[in-house]
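Students often ask what a holo structure prediction actually looks like on paper. The answer is less mysterious than it sounds. You provide the chain, you provide the ligand, and the output is a string of discrete structure tokens encoding the 3D arrangement of the protein together with histidyl-adenosine monophosphate.
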Amino acid sequence: MADRFEAPKGTFDYLPPEAGVRAAVERQMLTEMGLAGYELVETPVFEDTGLFARGVGTSTDVVQKEMYTFTDRGGRSLTLRPELTAGVVRALIEHGRIASGITKVAYTGPQFRYERPQAGRQRQFHQVGIEAVGSDAPALDADVVLVGHEIFRRLGVEATLLLTSLGDAECRPAYRARLLEFLRGLGGDLPAEARARAEQNPLRVLDMKDPLVQELTADAPLMRDALCPACRAHDEAVRGLLADAGLKWVEAPRLVRGLDYYVRTTFEWQAAELAAAQNALGGGGRYDGLSELVGGPPAPGVGWALGLDRVVLALAQAGRLPADPHRLDALVIPLAGAADAAAFTLVRDLRRAGLVADLPYAGRTLKGHMKAAARAGARAVVIIGDAELAAGEAGVRDMQAREQRTVPLAGAVGAVGAVARRRPPGADPSGPPDLT
Ligand code: HAM
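The corresponding structure tokens follow.
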């Protein structure tokens, strides 16, 4: 038996400062989603296995090969969520939110897929997403895409939008049959894996990366050319709005995506910085039949999810990660045992004033304390020794300017605030609040 443990394969521990930087990226995403009226929801990390089998689709890799499924002590088959759209739609149905016009929700949280781990592909990964349910208006598709676009703009990520339409129950079955006929016509030339896929879900042969498959299917019929008039009109309306808002995209008639619920507008954002197999920063589309598939009333919907891990990776590779939000405004040092209580109270008051303050929790010489404060990046050091305590004062040192002055203990909060706000040009703008 192992005498120490490691994080399970395909999972990561995020420690400071990375965890703080990830949270800063997530906050920027949530801010942008909030500006467009998407409100947070939270659903369970595990759901009935049947929800994913029906919602995501039994022919998908996600359901066939990648789910973490287990039986609980009550004999129920449960699955760690591989994605959140099915769970969110289930929750909206269960709580009667479907019938009441358009519902715009946002979420953030871990997902689980048993995939082969590599850079940008994990078994536990984090998605931030939005879903807009209750309307089939093309303006809603455009809104959803625009929110993603604005997130990438805010973060400074270069993401290419790939866009297509997957048709609907009206036009896709006939197209699917034609495509299957085409693929069967290739006979034994088509590799065995592609032949097997063709029988399960012929559209998924089109997005296979195998160069031979790509070459053989170069002339395959495309859904784009087989859209029914309603799907075509929807597609054109979405594109018109996106173009009006100045968005650019790449036509992706072979984009299929790995989940079965999509109809009509379907899209993905890809990053130039990441390796081809993991370059999808996020993706989504319309899922007008999903509610009925999982037992709800008709409720057209559209949404996307971004992979936070991949977005952070792309930002790191482009050298554009936000600054570590951690800061230490003041280290308060009681130099004599009698000063402990005054230091502890001052730390409380500094924190109440919105300043980041801490104690050393260790006995050191003054020189040792100053070294530790410099290592911790403290902007100010407050020194309370015997003499200061007797006089009701504190020494407040500006670590950068290397200046120290003595102030009344009651004025220490204001003095630390003044030091903490004085920052070198170009420093992290997330500073302490102005206390004046
Ligand atoms: P998805 O394309 O399966 O869509 O996942 C969305 C994003 O999650 C991917 O583009 C990728 O950035 C990230 N992702 C997926 N798998 C992994 C992994 N193993 N490791 C790291 N990142 C990963 C969905 O999940 C849909 N529910 C999106 C949606 C919402 N469609 C409509 N509404």
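The CA atoms of residues 339 and 389 lie 6 Å apart.
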